[in-house]
Amino acid sequence: MASRRRNQRGLALISFAMSLLILVPLIGVGVDTAMLYLVKERLSSAVQLSARSAARSADPADAAKRYFDANFPDGFLGVTARTVAYKNGELSASVEAPTYFMRILHYPSVTVTANVHH
Amino acid sequence: MKNRRPQRGSTLVEFVLVLPIGVALLVGACSLGVACLRSLEAGQLARDVLLLADSGLDFGSPGGKQQVIEHGKSLGLSAGKAAIHLTRIVREPGGYRIDQSYGLGDTVRWPSQLRDPANAADLKPGESAWIAEVFGESGTITSLVPDTVKARSVL
To answer: From the list A20, A38, A48, which residue is nearest B47 (CB)?
Structure first.
């Protein structure tokens, strides 16, 4: 009985350390998802505002690009591979948003897209 | 019976060791979540106010200011927890010029960061644009997350 009790010492630490193996990735995925949602929201706003500016311009494709650059500058929120295209009244943009924890699971970035038809 | 007292002690020690890690994880996750939410609100406020500007709202009028305050309620614009700067820039043959400028909320704590209008937007001669800069408290209690959220939009 005494030896069993002695064996139980440190059990809380071990079980907590094991639960961290599940908790930390879960929190990490939550943080990454929140950051990706933030990128998606800002990208959608940038596309919406740029399309509105493009619609009242004589050269919509050029205006869309310029206003998109102003609303979502290169490197904003750590994104890479930023592309924007305007065709037949539709403005679409895509970026590679970095992940901070999901890269451990071999997802270093996620493609985020937004488009609006004006 | 002899072993009970030492075991109680070790449970307490383990709990004390584990507690800071657990609390740090919880506080960090909550702080990031709240800051993320506030950042989303700041971005939405910047966009919504520009859409109001595009619809011809006069920000200088009491009604116009009231509408901006209503939109910024969730960010605490009227409670001094946020600030918004609205600037209309015009590109003339001689260069960029600030045509109109309005500030609401705690503009002393968060002054406009629009130093050079030419850097804010690439306009063609004769074009004009509205720029909305929103600042607000991130609501964080850790130094890991910045205490201010920012958003800037151009229309």
So the answer is: A48
Q: Would you call A22 exposed, middle or buried from its count of C-beta atoms within 10 A (0-12, 13-18, 19+)?
A: exposed
Taking the Cβ of residue B155 and every Cβ of chain A, the question of whether any pair is shorter than 8 Å is answered with yes
Whether A93 contacts A83, CB under 8 Å:
yes
What pLDDT score was predicted for residue B47? Answer: 95
Spell out the domain ranges in chain B.
Answer: 4-154
ipTM of the complex: 0.82
For A83, phi and psi rounded to 5 degrees?
-130, 145
Which chain B residue is nearest to residue A1, measuring alpha carbons? B3
Contacts of A2 in chain B (CB under 8 A): 2-3
pLDDT digits (tens, 9 = 90+) for B80-132: 899 999 999 999 988 999 999 999 999 999 999 998 888 888 999 989 999 99
Q: How big is the A-B interface in CB pairs under 8 Å?
A: 80
Select the residue from A71, A101, A116 to test the B interface by mutation, using most B Cβ atoms within 10 A: A71
